[in-house]
Please model this.
Amino acid sequence: MTKCSNFFTLQTSADLGVRLDLKQIALRCRNTEFNPRRFAAVIMRLREPRATALVFASGKLVITGTKSAHNSSLATKKIAYILERVGFQPADFINFKVQNIVGTVDVGFPIRLEGVAFAHPTFSSYEPELFPGLIYRLVQPRVVLLIFVSGKVVITGAKTEIDMVEGFKKVHPVLLEFRKVHTQQLGMAAIGDGVQGSADDVTVPSLPPIAKANTAKGGKGKAKGAARKGAKSKETHEV
Model:
């Protein structure tokens, strides 16, 4: 059974319905950043709930970094309250909407990305020279998965948590099919198939000790020398 550890973050948007003076907000609010030359929005960070908001002059907000839709809604209301304290009057109706949910999953085993790309060319795109992960696009639910060889998966494009979970459930059997098996495990499996019994029962014949081999070789040499010496002495006696 594969154990998966996962978490996700949300990206939501809202419209306060009022024009904002970003320079005044940056001067009077804490935990804010504003550099109009680089980005035309005030970056506001909240501690509770932990979130980062992009405040635009049109009154639109983008909230990222929250763990649930409830926290995103709470962060939107808190920002509206802060802006009201500064001197702006947000509309009573806030157009709150979940734009994207990003989830990360670790399946716990390495994956053969080449096999996935070859078996599912319609849904997958894999170019390791440009990006190390495999891009897997599902039609229903409409989510995109970034699959890495280490077993980590990033799920993006979902509008609800249910779509994200359903998308991962559809791709998980494919990841199990192309699970990367270590070379040591393949070797043990081959031993188990070729020899009856378990791997512990397999005996490997050992080579003779080097010292004994040298001794045996030396003994043969001495025997040949003695035979030559005896033949030579015999010829001398005959003469």
Summary: The first strand starts at residue 5 and ends at 15. DSSP finds six helices and ten strands in the chain. The radius of gyration is 36 Å. Confidence is low (pLDDT under 50) at residues 1-5, 195-207, 210-217, 234-239.
